[in-house]
Amino acid sequence: MAIRILLIDDNPDQAIITRRVLQHGGGYELEHASSGEEGIEKLQKWNPNLVLCDYHLPGISGVEVLKAMRKQGAETPFVIVTSAGSERVAVEAMQEGAYDYLVKDAAYDDLLPRIIQRSLDRFNERNERKRLEAERQQAQQALEKAYTELRVMQEQLIQSAKLESVGRLAAGAAHEVKNPLAVIQMGLEYLAKHLNPDDENTLLIVTSMREAVRRADSVIRGLLDFSAHRLLEPKLQSINPVIEQSIALIKHELSKTRVQLSVELDPSLPSILLDAARLEQVFINLIMNALHAMPSGGNLVVRTRQQTAQQIEVLFPGRFTNGSPVLVVEVDDTGEGIPVNVIPKIFDPFFTTKPTGQGTGLGLSVTRTIVELHQGAIDIRNRPEGGIRASVVFPLPS
Ligand SMILES: Nc1ncnc2c1ncn2[C@@H]1O[C@H](COP(=O)(O)OP(=O)(O)OP(=O)(O)O)[C@@H](O)[C@H]1O
Ligand SMILES: [Mg+2]
User: How far is residue 398's CA from residue 394's CA, in Å, rounded to a whole number?
Assistant: First the structure.
């Protein structure tokens, strides 16, 4: 295929010389423009392989033609032609991105084809380098992505190994303690019934013992729930009523606080397979945490909506299939938030920042276990405006 050369030169004699030299060599197709402006126009229309441009032109100079071309994004190799003694111009052109320069002197005829070839070679090399660089960057990005995924997976593995061993331990201990606890509870009921109503001191002691047993029992239940690998009993149903029921169950707690609750449930959500009783526990845990985080009041928002996996990608990199729909439940509070160094620990069993006797630190580990049994995922992070957002995400059939 012929090499297309755009010659920009106002001197007809020079144009004739150039045409003759190139025709002699063969394999070239030449287009001629007599001014810089005409050259720029032809460049767009004709798309040459190389531009050969005189420096001294009637309107804009050769270097300005080059600048205009580069500004338009044309990468075409550019060779500037100068008269003998004005090499300074050549330097300027090279600085602006010319590939080479050529002096109109006795060696012109001889050098022209060689310089054209050299410029084209350099252009091809440059393109090849760019292509390789793009490939390298792509490979690096793929590597970084794979690395991130690997790290996430590793963390999950560590986490599940931790849960597994703690879970087994907890389940064992809980079973051992559950039965004696039931005996104590029954005994206390009996004592309470047969007490002399005038014996206030004993009555007080029995009442506080019953309260202590009730707490111990709820810890044991938490442990058993947390370690329960028992199967879900899922039914195809909407998640909204489950959330409404969870809210109804904590209405009493809520009424004791100065927290404003708003509920934004998307009525068009499709049904999913879910175990209502266990998911209630999830939302109760999250809402109770939010209430505890706002002891002097605040705003609590519980929201459901449908999104795509891309929209929640920042929360769960690589976790859900690209483009697939997901169901999102958000619980937002305006509490004090969680210090960054604490965030990695909040799902750990028994991790709590609450005073002894107020939190077992099992809420979130149980929550995560239940969400994962539903093929879902949970993320908790600070919101820029203060407080935290808990996002629970379930995959929807696409
Ligand atoms: N909404 C929230 N705002 C601030 N910190 C939170 C929030 N939710 C959880 N946390 C932090 O995470 C910790 C662990 O929460 P998790 O629910 O597992 O246990 P807990 O609430 O301390 O005890 P419990 O077992 O009674 O739920 C909390 O102690 C608290 O420090
Ligand atoms: Mg909790």
Answer: 12
Domain boundaries, the chain: 3-105, 139-230, 231-398
Cα–Cα dist 85/66, whole Å? 21
User: What is the dotted CATH code of the domain comprising 231-398?
Assistant: 3.30.565.10
Q: How far does the centroid of ligand 2 lie from the alpha carbon of residue 361, in Å?
A: 6
Do 292 and 255 contact (CB within 8 A), yes or no?
no
Task: Indicate which residue's Cα is closest to atom 27 of ligand 1.
Answer: 363
Partnered with residue 8 across adjacent β-strands are: 33, 53
Ligand 1 pocket test, candidate residues 352, 356, 385, 388, most atoms within 8 A of CB: 352
Which tens digit of pLDDT belongs to each residue from 160-203?
777 667 777 777 788 788 888 889 999 999 998 898 888 889 88
pLDDT digits (tens, 9 = 90+) for 316-357: 988 888 889 999 999 999 999 999 999 999 998 889 999 877
- pTM metric for this prediction: 0.56
CATH 3.20.20.370 assigned to 3-105: no
Q: Please tell me the residue having the least CA distance from ligand 1 atom 28.
A: 352
